[in-house]
Design a protein that fits this description.
Length: 153
């Protein structure tokens, strides 16, 4: 029994890069450092430095989704705008843990200024006490729940 093809093969569109892709990729490689720095500055400072750097690299790498047509304008400005939009979107998105932390730790009314040249030790002590109370308030129910489940099982 021989295998035959009933329908002829119809060639599809060529899947190579478009004319704009090499231009955009060259521009992205040339301005990559400045775009990462821009995204780093937009991302919230509440996350750690290493996570912020990794997130900034991810923002720049996501700035060009596949198949995006190049607008008729300055491609450098287009890339910069995409990076700013993506970094702003990521900065405004809060995780569930951030939202819960906002419930337990309300806005700082102690007048703490992290960029102050002189350190007010009483303010720092009050913030440390509030942080300890928050840690105890979160850890205690969790510990009691684990102990109860171990004792009842």
């Amino acid at each position: 029994m021989s295998a035959t093809v009933e329908t002829p093969l119809i060639p599809g569109p060529i899947q190579g890069p478009t004319r704009e892709e090499p231009q955009i990729e060259a521009l992205l490689l040339g301005d990559y450092g400045s775009l990462v720095h821009l995204a780093y500055l937009i991302l919230p400072p509440s996350i750690s430095r290493s996570r912020r750097i990794a997130a900034a690299h991810a923002v720049v790498q996501r700035a060009l989704p596949p198949g995006l047509p190049l607008p008729s304008g300055d491609p450098r400005e287009f890339l910069r705008l995409r990076v700013v939009q993506e970094a702003g979107r990521q900065a405004s998105a809060q995780s569930m843990l951030d939202r819960l932390g906002g419930l337990f730790a309300p806005a700082d009314s102690l007048g703490f200024e992290p960029c102050a040249t002189t350190i007010d030790r009483t303010t720092i002590r009050r913030r440390n006490r509030r942080g300890r109370r928050l840690a105890i308030a979160v850890t205690l129910p969790l510990t009691l729940g684990i102990l109860a489940s171990l004792l009842l099982s």
